[in-house]
Design goal:
With 477 residues, this protein is α/β, with parallel strands linked by helices. Helix content is 29%, strand content 21%. The protein has helices at 77-86, 104-115, 134-146, 165-178, 189-201, 209-213, 216-233, 245-256, 268-271, 296-308, 351-360, 367-381; strands at residues 4-14, 19-27, 30-35, 41-46, 51-54, 56-58, 89-92, 95-97, 122-123, 126-128, 151-155, 181-185, 237-239, 261-265, 313-314, 399-409, 428-438, 441-445, 448-449. Strand 10, helix 3 (134-146) and strand 11 (151-155) form a beta-alpha-beta unit. The longest helix is centred in the middle third of the chain and has 18 residues, at 216-233. The termini are far apart. It binds N-(aminocarbonyl)-beta-alanine (URP) and zinc ion (ZN) (2 copies). N-(aminocarbonyl)-beta-alanine is lined by residues 62, 185, 241, 289-290, 317, 319, 343-344. One zinc ion (ZN) binds next to loops.
């Protein structure tokens, strides 16, 4: 009998701490040995001269998320996770959305059912809390948190999703008590709706005005308020999809006060600008997302933030609405106001290759930082580490072997999602996952998906250290 099921031989193996040339021995889906040289396996995968990283953990992506405004989430768990694997991501954490008046437990159970028999990657689930009533806060959330749903997102904008400050305080207090981790979409919803009305009144309805309806101060104010409310109750939070200098400044100020605060950014804030919303015809709608892409100077600030530790995680915020067809970006016609364009851009598959090429390949960040941002820290923040997010003995054998020198012109035809466009069409990058392993199984190789639908397992999240309060005196409650 062989000592190992698989040996990955001779790669430059990267963790968030170091890059070392070694062999990886895999047994029963887990990493069983790391050494200069290993022998005795049923299968040897040659990784000589190639970069080897942990499988990515995409801790912010929308998959098969129901909607009440007629927009359609084009990726279900099959197409979404298929596309994740092809891009080197082996764990996803999408969102179970509660509707107003709906039981949160029911929303989570229903959402779990969507993954059954479909998911190809392992997956955990965040909750989106929209209706924090007494029953939800007092009964449902404590139970769900103990069942492994230890993180949730709240919104400060979007009709039907946004919470007022009082509700935000309610959920923060709950998070503190139950040790759950809170993600905040920080934009001032009232400012956005006021600005949207004004823009429309003066006939400014083209996709580019989406950016005008949510300028940087709108995100800065939301951020400042979220931080203030969290500070009041001594609750760590994570700010999702940060786009701009103003927000980075708020983050630095809060951290300088000693607050426990985490931040995420996404590819769209590195590779798109508001000019992309002003493409001819309705093309700009493809890049409508919130917060909107900013300008080149802000892109640079986001790059700097990836390098200097401002950002803890790099997620896709994959929000798969098709351009054409029912429930897509054009669902209200090409002459409709930007107000009606479904928000979000697809990016599960391109997240890792884009940062690998433009970050690591161009020496903006090191490989260790790449691993930290795309795998290790997301796994840690959401209670999945060390099972996920690193390459070490005992961890799940979720591994990406890169074709470091492959030149790729990104085209939607190459991608495996169910969206009919990519905002990165035509962009040339270097490097793409050659082989992806999930729990030791080759799930992507030779340009083919090799995974069976339904092989992905649900991951109950542990109680993450990220959610532990500082222990500072809080407002008297
Ligand atoms: O525009 C975006 N980001 N859409 C997805 C939903 C969200 O706010 O994350
Ligand atoms: Zn959001
Ligand atoms: Zn999102």
């Amino acid at each position: 009998m062989s000592r190992f099921d698989t040996i990955v031989r001779g790669g430059m193996v990267a963790t968030s701490a170091a890059v070392v040339r070694c062999d990886i021995g895999i047994r029963e889906g887990r990493i069983a040995a790391l050494a200069d040289s290993l022998e005795g396996a049923d299968r040897v995968i040659d990784a000589e001269g190639r970069t080897v990283t942990p499988g990515g953990v995409d801790s912010h992506c929308h998959i098969d998320q129901p909607s009440r405004n007629g927009s359609v989430c084009a990726d279900d768990f099959l197409t979404g996770t298929r596309s994740a694997l092809a891009g080197g991501t082996t764990t996803v954490i999408p969102f179970a959305l509660q509707f107003k008046g709906q039981s949160l437990r029911e929303a989570v159970n229903e959402y779990r059912g969507r993954a059954d028999n479909r998911a190809m990657t392992d997956y955990a689930i965040h909750m989106i809390v929209v209706d924090p009533n007494e029953h939800v806060l007092g009964q449902e959330m404590p139970g769900l948190i103990r069942d492994g749903y230890t993180s949730f997102k709240i919104y400060m904008t979007y009709d039907g999703l946004m919470l007022n400050d009082r509700e935000i305080l309610d959920v923060l207090a709950l998070a503190r008590r139950e040790r759950a981790f809170v993600m905040v979409h920080a934009e001032n919803g009232d400012c956005i709706s006021w600005l949207t009305d004004r823009l429309e009144q003066s006939g400014k309805i083209a996709p580019k005005y989406h950016a005008h309806s949510r300028p940087r101060p709108v995100e800065r104010e939301g951020t400042h308020r979220a931080i203030t409310l969290a500070e009041l109750l001594d609750v760590p939070i994570l700010l999702v999809h940060v786009s701009a200098r103003d927000v980075v400044d708020e983050i630095h100020r809060a951290r300088a006060r000693g607050l426990k605060l985490f931040a995420e950014t996404c590819p769209q804030y590195l590779f798109l600008t508001e000019d992309d919303l002003d493409k001819p015809g309705f093309e700009g709608a493809k890049c409508v997302c919130s917060p909107p892409p900013r300008d080149k100077a802000n892109q640079q600030v986001i790059w700097d933030g990836l390098r200097n530790g401002t950002f803890d995680v790099f997620s896709s915020d994959h929000a798969p609405t098709r351009f054409e067809g029912l429930g897509g970006k054009k669902m209200h016609g090409e002459n409709a106001s930007f107000r009606w364009i479904p928000n979000g851009v697809p990016g599960l598959e391109t997240r890792m290759p884009l940062l690998f090429s433009e970050g690591v390949g161009k020496n903006v960040i090191g490989l260790e930082k790449f691993v930290e941002l795309t795998a290790t820290t997301p796994a840690k923040l959401y209670g999945l580490y060390p099972q996920k997010g690193t390459i070490a003995v005992g961890c799940d054998a979720d591994i990406v072997i890169w074709d470091d020198s492959r030149e790729v012109t990104i085209s939607n035809d190459l991608l495996h999602h169910n969206v009919d466009y990519t905002p990165y069409e035509g962009m040339s990058i270097t490097g793409w996952p050659a082989i992806t392993l999930s729990r030791g199984e080759v799930v992507w190789a030779d340009g083919e998906i090799r995974a069976e639908p339904g092989r992905g397992e649900f991951l109950p999240c542990g109680f993450p250290e990220s959610a532990v309060p500082l222990g500072r005196p809080v407002a008297q409650i």
